[in-house]
Amino acid sequence: MEEFPLSHEPVLVRARLIFTARGTLLEDGAVEVRRGRIVDLGPYPELKRTFRGRRVDLGEVLLLPALTNAHTHLELSALRFRLTPTGSFITWVRSLIRKRVELSLEDLRQAAAEALDELWQEGVGLLGEVGNTGITLGLLHESPFHAVYFREIIDFRGKSEIKQFLERSSGRRIVYALSPHAPYTVSPVLIQAIKSWTRAKGRPFSIHVAESPEETLFLAEGSGPIRALLEERGQFHPGFEAPGLSPVAYLERLGVLDEHTICVHVVQVTPADLEILARRRIRPCLCPRSNIFLGVGLPPLPQILAAGLKPCLGTDSLASNDRLSVWAEMEALYHAYPEVAPETYLTMATLWGAQALGKRDMGAIEPGYRAEMIAVSGVLKGPEPLRSFIEGPKTVEVRLYAPF
After folding, report:
1. Rounded-to-integer distance, Cα 154 and Cα 159, Å
2. In a domain, 214, yes or no
3. pTM here?
């Protein structure tokens, strides 16, 4: 992959097709960039007449915004190929806990650094990274990525005070936030406290929701494999009473669902759940290849879209995925739901992910946005070139970005 840092000098970038990330496709188009920002967009023959500066012709490629991977666990990258599908979510969780303690901090750091390089080569520019140790936060500060780092909290007994997690500050590229792991691993009061802090700071709030049937059973009845695991690990609260609700309805009762909430997975959802999510304008983050690996099913994408929601994409971790490829996540959903327009998949991978993470100047090729773009070669033919593009092999040829 060729890298093209965009300096302060004006540059006019031409490509055969440009996807603006708002559902439009511009043929023989050009993007004018100044000081790392997009200042104009339009047909190349028109823009070149008045432009004075360097011109770059990328050729027969699709130019689109750098991708957003809205949900990663890079700390788990050292577990790549160490866990196998079992058809049981809790069996996988047990294996994850057992295998992780066998790894040193240096193992975790090195694998995470390699994973970041993989993401860069795949064309990702913005990350929603979830971590427990802070290892990847340091790596992100050393990297060229934009990111939201979610410090994940797991405490079903509710003994933690969130102030112990607040020593980090946000910067221009890396935003620091807090994330309760899931409704079944964090006490209700702690979930509400974390949401209150993120609301006060204007930061996104991310939580795993409705990922497995075991989660649904636990919140409905207070029984099953999740309760057994919590008890074994000394995490079950003796005063807990099952709310008798779905995971989505439970979070609604806690008052933590709003337009700044990212609900990750949303596989085990009902029409009533989708109505709640749509009313609260939450942001679903779908990780289909992880869901397939764990045998929990697929998110009902057509119904999610029909409800008016704007889902984004994540790869989850290399403990439940073999690749950190947003392209592969798009393809998995496309093969399951070919009736969904290819423009929608690309928007999920770019603009909607950036919006979910609160990055209002990324994820689109439009005036005022950061010039974070990728030029991708692939099959672009027929009356629906984006459909043939999604179906076929793709290669990121050029990476265009604005140095900090």
Report:
1. 10
2. no
3. 0.96
One DSSP character per residue, 288-356 reads: HHHHHHHT-----HHHHHHTT---EE--B-TTS-S---HHHHHHHHHHH-TTS-HHHHHHHTTHHHHHH
Q: For tokens 């209002």, what's the residue?
A: 360
Phi, psi of 370, rounded to the nearest 5 degrees: -65, 145
The DSSP 8-state label assigned to residue 6 in this structure reads -
Domain co-membership, 290 together with 180: yes
Map residue 247 onto helix, strand or coil. Answer: helix
- Host domain of residue 382: 2-65+363-401
My answer on whether 293 and 391 are in the same domain is no
Element (DSSP H or E) covering residue 396: strand 394-401
Q: How far is CA 328 from CA 85, 260, 352, 394, in A?
A: 18, 26, 17, 10
Q: What are the pLDDT digits (tens) for 154-190? A: 999 988 888 778 866 667 799 999 999 999 999 999 9
Cα–Cα distance for residue pair 385/16, rounded to 1 Å = 11
Q: In the Cβ-directed half-sphere of 260, how many Cα atoms lie within 13 Å?
A: 21
Residue with tokens 């629906």: 384
Residue pair 154/230 in contact by the 8 Å Cβ criterion: no
The answer to whether the CB of 342 falls within 8 A of the CB of 390 is: yes
Query: 378 forms bridges with which residues in the sheet?
Result: 394
Domain count of the fold of the chain: 2
**At a CB cut-off of 8 Å and minimum separation 6, what does 22 contact?**
347, 351, 364, 366
Would you state the structure tokens that stand for residue 353, as one six-digit string? 């992910």
**Alpha carbons 19 and 63: distance in angstroms, whole number:** 6
Alpha-carbon gap, residue 395 to 4, rounded angstroms: 16
Q: Specify the CATH number for the domain of residue 327.
A: 3.20.20.140
Count CB-CB contacts under 10 A for residue 290. 25
pLDDT tens digits, one per residue of 21-64: 777 899 999 999 999 999 999 999 999 999 999 999 999 999 99
Structure tokens at 183: 């409704």
80 and 38 share one domain: no
Q: What is the Cα–Cα distance from 69 to 287, expressed in whole angstroms?
A: 10
202 and 327 fall within a common domain: yes
Q: Mention every residue, 6+ apart, whose C-beta is less than 8 A from residue 337.
A: 301, 302
